Model the fold of this input.
Amino acid sequence: MIEKDHPKLSLRNQCELLGINRNRLRKTPTKLSEEDLKIMKDLDIIYTK
Done:
């Protein structure tokens, strides 16, 4: 597990040792716009046909 306040290892070093991308540490996903949600719904309908 990642320790944000580790006394000796920075977040960068911990991620590198674990082989994960630091972008995965973000807790809140970015909010999608209504247009994006509509496009994703349309794509899902087309794909499942």
